[in-house]
Amino acid sequence: MGRGQERTGRIALYGWIGLAVILAAELLLHLGIRPIPSFFTPIVWTGYILFVDGLIGALQGRSLIRDRPGEFLLLLPLSLVFWLIFEIYNSRMQNWHYIGLPENILVRSLGYIWSFATILPAVLLTARLMELVIGPRERVPAIRAGPAVQWTLVVLGSIFLLVPILVPASTARYLIILIWLGFILLLEPTNYRRGGWSLLRDGEGGKAGRLLALCASGLICGLLWEFWNYWAGTKWIYTVPLPLGPKLFEMPLGGYLGFIPFAVECHVMYAFVLVLRRKPWFPEREI
Question: In the chain, which residues have pLDDT < 50?
Answer without folding.
Answer: 1-5, 281-285, 287
